[in-house]
Design brief:
With 446 residues, the protein is α/β, with parallel strands linked by helices. The protein contains 15 helices and 18 strands. It folds into 2 domains: 104 residues, Urease, subunit C, domain 1 (Roll); 289 residues, TIM Barrel. It is 39% helix and 22% strand. An 8-stranded mixed β-sheet has the order 4-3-2-6-15-16-17-18, covered by helices on one side. Strands 7-8-9-10 form a 4-stranded parallel β-sheet. Strands 11-12-13-14 form a 4-stranded parallel β-sheet.
Length: 446
């Protein structure tokens, strides 16, 4: 007698998304054609061929994206979000002049909670529209940036700035540490916001204060983000003053750990790269900002060869001028090729990984975000590759990296919640953010 085996009941989930291509990034960084993702309780329940997902899962909502690539949300691993209000203010100035004669004096006069709130809202709208679901923000009034992130539904690493002089947010290092650690306590278990220490740079924060930051960060198991080796002049000054580079100094202080996020690193010799690798440090590459300020080119291919995780950051809009992470991925890929003379360096799939999982690793969140894997948080974006400029699509990863795809983002989800749906912002009042920026434009001009 033949036994009858009834089909197993389908499992329930909240939503199934069908896409022309799904790019999971991990565990395999290859595009899946005609694939689907099942989402439930804010997490990814399944990723795979469309028929297989629909055979095992059922949902009240099915989102069909016939011309789209579905991929992990982008991670902007370094920026100064409120500086959208200074976009285009001081163009074509070298870094030292740009900071000391233009940006810092203007910030001293204008930065306030209102400035940060309005600038960060404008940044949040821009980031969502270009596919960022998680951003790191090093700026004054980090509690405001964290509040805007919650309001917008974005994930945020709020990096509280530590500088040795009075500013709009703190009276100096002691005050910054006090306020920053209180902010860390506030968000200790928050699903969207984490808090990191943000010493501006090794050249601007004294050695005893860097030692204190290391001690507190170790105690709290908190990340530290720092501008490091941004220019050749900065590194030469370190060697003249201390006999070692700033990387060497941070190594002496015990700051080269997996929790350190080293931003820029346009200059590094073999010994310094070895020290970064041994410490497990992540480097955040900001190619547009580095080129615009003529700071240098991060040796990404060499860092990858050494086993160093490299993430991408836009830096602030005042030195970029956009917050488009896919544009950073494209430029990073091109710079790696021209700087090494090897067209095979930093291929498109690796550039996409830097923009997603690489950023998640840098921020210590790779167990939760950065790839489309069952069990991870449902932070995803869809990019419409149906436009003429993408055709024909031989390789969706290439189209994403080299096709100016940031402007083609149609959907954004964070934890399964739609922040952008069919190009409509769901959590932010974009016209109000634009109007606020126009009001600040008049203040800056005056």
């Amino acid at each position: 007698m033949a036994l009858y085996n009834p089909p197993m009941a389908k499992q329930d989930c909240d939503q199934i998304i069908d896409a022309r291509w799904v790019l999971p990034v991990a565990p395999v960084n290859e595009a899946l054609e005609e694939a689907s993702v099942a989402v439930g309780d804010g997490r990814i329940r399944a990723v795979g061929p469309r028929e297989a997902v629909h055979a095992a899962w059922q949902a009240p909502t099915v989102c069909r994206l016939p011309d789209h690539a579905l991929l992990p949300g982008l991670v902007n691993a370094h920026g100064h979000a409120a500086m959208t209000l200074l976009r285009g203010f001081a163009e074509d100035a070298p870094l030292a002049e740009w900071l000391s004669q233009h940006i810092w004096p203007l910030e001293a006069r204008l930065v306030s909670e209102a400035f940060v709130r309005d600038g960060t809202r404008l940044a949040a709208a821009e980031m969502i529209r270009s596919g960022t679901t998680c951003y790191s923000d090093m700026y004054f009034f980090p509690e405001v940036s964290a509040a805007v992130a919650r309001e917008a539904g974005l994930r945020c690493q709020a990096v509280f700035p530590i500088v040795p002089f009075p500013n709009a947010w703190s009276d100096g290092v002691d005050d910054a540490l006090h306020k920053g650690m209180a902010l860390h306590d506030t968000y200790r278990e928050h699903p969207l916001v984490t808090v990191a220490f943000g010493p501006h740079a090794a050249y601007s924060v004294d050695r005893p204060d860097l030692e204190r930051i290391r001690t507190y960060a170790d105690e709290l198991e908190a990340p530290v983000q720092i501008h490091l080796h941004e220019t050749a002049a900065e590194v030469a000054d370190a060697r003249a003053e201390h006999g070692v580079s700033w990387i060497g100094l941070l190594d002496q202080l015990g700051l080269l750990t997996p929790r350190l996020q080293a931003v820029h690193v346009t200059q590094a010799d073999a010994d310094e790269i070895a020290a970064l690798a041994q410490g497990g440090v992540s480097v955040v590459h900001c190619p547009h900002s580095n080129l615009k300020l003529a700071s240098g080119i991060c040796p990404v291919a060499t860092l990858h060869d050494a086993g160093i995780n490299v993430a991408l950051g836009t830096d602030g809009a005042a030195s970029n001028n956009t917050l488009d992470v896919l544009a950073e991925a494209r430029l990073a890929s091109l710079l790696a090729k021209i700087s090494t003379g090897d067209t095979r360096r930093l291929p498109e799939a690796r550039a996409l990984e830097m923009a997603t999982l690489g950023g998640a690793r840098a921020l210590g969140r790779e167990a939760e975000i950065g790839s489309l894997e069952a069990g991870k948080l449902a932070d995803m974006i869809a990019v419409d590759l149906g436009a003429a400029r993408f055709q024909p699509v031989y390789d969706p990863t290439s189209a994403l990296i080299h096709g100016a795809a940031g402007s083609a983002v149609s959907h954004v989800w964070v934890g399964g919640r739609a922040l952008l749906y069919d190009r409509a912002l769901m959590t932010l009042d974009e016209p109000a953010a634009i109007a606020a920026a126009a009001a600040w434009l008049e203040q800056v001009r005056n």
